[in-house]
Design a protein that fits this description.
By secondary structure, the protein is α/β, with parallel strands linked by helices. It has helices spanning 27-32, 94-106, 116-123, 129-140, 144-154, 157-181, 192-221, 235-245, 286-300, 316-330, 336-340, 361-364, 385-393, 410-431, 436-454, 460-468, and strands spanning 5-8, 17-23, 35-36, 49-57, 64-74, 85-91, 110-111, 223-229, 262-267, 270-276, 304-310, 353-359, 369-370, 374-376. A seven-stranded mixed β-sheet has the order 3-4-5-6-2-1-7. Strands 9-10-8-11-12-14-13 form a seven-stranded mixed β-sheet, sandwiched between helices. Guanosine-5'-diphosphate is lined by residues 229, 231-237, 359-360, 362-363, 378-381.
């Protein structure tokens, strides 16, 4: 972090203003080679103040004025990165931005790598690792639910809880280690009873946190809903009926593999991803079978299966039997009873619910309506669509208010899994009267896992993966 970095913080393309950011020990000196204020330079500005200025590039004899704009100065450590930061706001011409960046690199700055500003913020202690990860989520958030989750995490969420747990475990580790110094005397400084209580509490809390992951993931990436039904049951008609009611229709999600067809639908700030199972026919060649495997994978991790059938042609019981047959394809051990019960445990992470959708009630001569696990509707006549929407909303627990933590990050989910195992081991050791040094070792390992979430301990390549996903300029 000896060198100073620069990048544009705003996207290139149309817009009124672009912001070019310089950060590092030489930021002010470098900016002063490019910025011409009416009086004085950037170095004379008060921190957190703004000035009108011209931006110049060194030309042959005279300087070439590139643009006019404003300069903002943030002196270390009160800046995003914790270093001196100078922001130049210019007109949003890609040409001006390019020239400005090359003037800055000529003056001694280096082009920033993806996520490097946030990485520096992390390394300078402006935020912990889970908060830095939340910055990426916040930038990527596209609806109320994903924004809400990122915002919670940015404000501290998981970190706060982990810090509290850490503080209490550190105390025990220290006491147990202290006992080792007095091993001749056979004393116990660490209250085993209290340690056991803490481990029980921490274990339960970690398990509860891990359980929020399925919801967190669904909210962040969209609630995956699988649509199943015989040909002609009305799947396309139903999708159209749902999608047409919402103006904000997004047809695909960048970054996801699109080997299964997905339709995206937003309702009440939550995004749903409808996964079509049309590809789930008996596969003849290897490619088809691979496609099927991926579809099956998606089905396993779906939040719900909508089992659509033609109510004029089939009874609910027949539909249940058919659904049970589908289920057995995914999980040979599953029985019809689990289907009838309305839930099936096909994945460890989430438990998809089966919701029966009895379509074509107009042709069946009955009214739209709803039972516990069945919605009766007419997709074509648009009767009962609102009942289905209500049932879909119930797939997710209401967003807990305040600062309740919801896991959204797969890395945190994995580390918490290791933490849970380690806490179990400490508890088992305690129950088996394990010697103090082994106990202390296990507690230290638990502390290390906690540190992996907040970023107190991190392998270098982890920072590479996390910040590499950011865009340049963040
Ligand atoms: P898919 O093969 O499951 O996608 O089924 P489609 O959506 O293509 O529908 C098959 C046929 O059923 C079409 O002729 C639709 O017009 C008809 N259909 C769909 N929904 C309804 C409904 O609610 N009532 C009636 N009477 N016909 C419907």
């Amino acid at each position: 972090m000896e060198d100073s970095i620069c990048a544009t913080a705003t996207p290139s393309g149309s817009g009124g203003i672009s912001v070019v950011r310089v950060s590092g020990p030489q930021a002010v000196k470098i900016a002063d080679k490019v910025v011409r204020c009416r009086r004085g330079g950037v170095a004379d500005m008060a921190s957190h103040s703004v000035r009108f200025a011209a931006f110049v590039a060194a030309g042959g004899a005279a300087e070439e004025v590139l643009d006019e704009g404003v300069v903002t100065l943030f002196r270390a450590p009160r800046s995003y990165t914790g270093e001196d930061v100078v922001e130049l706001a210019c007109h949003a011409s890609p040409y001006i931005v390019r020239r400005l960046l090359s003037a800055l690199t000529d003056a001694g700055a280096r082009m920033a790598e993806p996520g490097e500003f946030t990485k520096r913020a992390f390394l300078n202690g402006k935020m912990d690792l889970s908060q830095a990860e939340a910055v990426a989520d916040l930038i990527a958030s596209e609806n109320k639910a994903s924004h809400d989750l990122a915002w919670r995490q940015l404000r501290g969420g998981v970190s706060d809880e982990m810090a509290a747990l850490r503080a209490r475990l550190v105390e025990f580790a220290a006491l147990v280690e202290l006992e080792l110094d007095f091993s001749e005397e056979d004393v116990e400084f660490a209250d085993r009873q209290a340690l056991r209580a803490l481990l029980d509490e921490a274990g339960a809390r970690v398990a509860a946190l891990r359980r929020t992951f399925a919801t967190g993931l669904a909210l962040k990436e969209g609630v995956p809903v699988v649509l199943i039904g015989r040909p002609n049951a009305g799947k396309s008609t139903l999708l159209n009926a749902l999608l047409r009611e919402e103006r904000a229709l997004v047809s695909d999600i960048p970054g996801t593999t699109r080997d299964t067809i997905e339709e995206v639908w937003e309702c009440a700030g939550v995004r749903y991803r409808f996964i079509d199972t049309a590809g789930l026919r008996e596969g003849r060649d290897e490619v088809e079978r691979m496609g099927i495997r991926r579809t099956v994978e998606k089905m396993r991790t779906a939040r719900a299966w909508l089992y659509l059938f033609d109510a004029a042609a089939m009874t609910l019981d027949e539909a249940r039997a058919e659904a049970a047959a589908w289920l057995r394809r995914l999980e040979p051990g599953a029985s019809a009873a689990t289907v009838a019960g309305g839930s099936a445990s096909v994945a460890a992470m989430s438990e998809p619910r089966i919701l029966f959708v009895a379509n074509k009630v107009d042709a069946a001569g009955r009214a739209a309506g709803r039972d516990a696990d069945t919605v009766y509707l007419s997709a074509r006549e648009r009767q009962g669509i609102d009942l289905l929407e209500g049932a879909l909303r119930e797939l997710l627990p209401p967003m807990p208010d305040g600062d309740t933590v919801i896991l959204t990050n797969a890395r945190h989910y994995e580390v918490l899994g290791r933490l849970a195992d380690t806490l179990d081991r400490v508890l088992a050791g305690l129950n088996a009267n394990l010697s103090g040094d082994l106990l202390a070792q296990d507690i230290r390992e638990a502390l290390r896992h906690i540190g992996e979430i907040t970023g107190e301990v991190y392998p270098d390549e982890l920072l590479g993966t996390i910040f590499g996903r950011f865009c340049i300029g963040k």
